[in-house]
UniProtKB/TrEMBL annotation:
Keyword Secreted set for record: no
NCBIfam families referenced in this protein's UniProt entry, alphabetically: PRK07567.1
SUPFAM superfamilies cross-referenced by the UniProt entry: Class I glutamine amidotransferase-like (SSF52317)
Keywords attached to this entry: Glutamine amidotransferase, Transferase
Protein name from the UniProt record: Glutamine amidotransferase
Cellular component GO terms, alphabetical: cytosol
Domain called Glutamine amidotransferase: residue spans: 48-192
KW Transferase (keyword) present: yes
GO MF term set: transferase activity
Pfam families: GATase (PF00117)
Domain of life per record: Bacteria
Length: 243
C-alpha cells in the first residue's frame, strides 16, 4: 500500500505527536503507512501525488483569517506551501482530508468566506448530516446526528457554489464539505477522543480558546459528552483510498 501523507502544523511536540498517533490508531495504519511532515519546523518538500494514497492536514493554532501582517513568517510560509500543493491536489481531484485548520486551508483555496462569525468554544456539539452527507461514501456508517469535539476561532461562513455541504451544527453552518469527488474538509475533529481533547485543553490553556478559570468545568463537560462516532470517518477515508 502507498502511504498516506499527514501535513502537521502544530509547533507543540505533545500536541503534534498525539495528533499523529490518533490518525494512526483510528486509520488502522502503521507508522510506515502514514508519513508525517511537520511544516511548523521544515519546508514542504516536493510532493509527488503518485507516491501517496491520500493527504491529511490536521489542526493548528494558526488562525488563517487574521490580517497577513499579524501572521508569523512560519505561518505565511506554511499557507503559501499548502496553497501551492492544493493547486495540484484539486486539479487531480486527489484524496484529501482537512480537519479543523485543514478545512480552512481547503476552503480558502476554493474561495470560501472564512471569519470569526461561527467560532465555537471547546465543546461537543451535535453534528447533523445533510442529505448529501447521508449519501456520501466517506460518511457511511455514521448516524444522521452525532456529537463531535470542536474548538475554533474561525469557520467557513459561506461556501462557493461548487462545494457540497455535508454537515452542519447549530452554531456552525459548515461542519463538513466536499469539493469534487475526493476532497473533504471537517470543522470538527474526527481524530479526537476524550483523552485527546483533554490533552489539547491543557496544552492550549493560554491560547485564547477558553477562559483558563473555566478549565475544570470544560474538561468535565467534554469527558461526559459521549463522543465515539467521528473516528469512523478516518477509517472510511483510509479504507476508501488506500491503494
Amino acid at each position: 500500500m502507498k502511504p498516506f501523507l499527514l501535513l502537521a502544523t502544530r509547533p507543540e511536540d505533545a500536541a503534534a505527536d498525539s495528533e499523529y498517533e490518533a490518525f494512526l490508531r483510528y486509520g488502522g495504519l502503521a507508522e510506515h503507512e502514514l508519513v508525517r511532515i511537520r511544516l511548523d519546523s521544515v519546508n514542504l518538500p516536493p510532493v509527488d501525488l503518485d507516491d501517496y494514497s491520500g493527504i491529511i492536514v490536521g489542526g493548528s493554532p494558526y488562525t488563517g483569517s487574521i490580517p497577513t501582517e499579524h501572521k508569523s513568517d512560519t505561518q505565511r510560509r506554511v499557507e503559501a506551501e499548502l496553497a501551492g500543493l492544493l493547486d495540484a491536489v484539486v486539479a487531480a481531484d486527489f484524496p484529501f482530508l482537512g480537519a479543523c485548520y485543514g478545512i480552512g486551508t481547503l476552503a480558502r483555496h476554493q474561495g470560501a468566506a472564512i471569519d470569526g462569525t461561527h467560532a465555537e468554544p471547546i465543546s461537543a456539539p451535535t453534528i447533523e448530516l445533510t442529505e448529501e452527507g447521508v449519501a456520501d461514501p466517506l460518511l457511511a456508517g455514521l448516524p444522521r446526528f452525532f456529537r463531535a469535539f470542536v474548538g475554533h476561532k474561525e469557520a467557513v461562513s459561506h461556501l462557493p457554489e461548487h462545494a457540497v455541504l455535508l454537515a452542519r451544527s447549530e452554531l456552525c453552518p459548515v461542519q463538513m464539505f466536499r469539493v469534487g469527488a475526493n476532497l473533504y474538509g471537517t470543522q470538527f475533529h474526527p481524530e479526537l477522543d476524550v483523552p485527546g481533547i483533554i490533552e489539547r485543553i491543557r496544552i492550549y490553556r493560554d491560547a485564547g480558546y477558553y477562559d483558563p478559570a473555566e478549565q475544570e468545568q470544560i474538561e468535565s463537560e467534554v469527558a461526559d459528552a459521549g463522543v465515539v462516532v467521528p473516528p469512523l470517518l478516518i477509517r472510511n477515508f483510509v479504507s476508501r483510498y488506500a491503494r
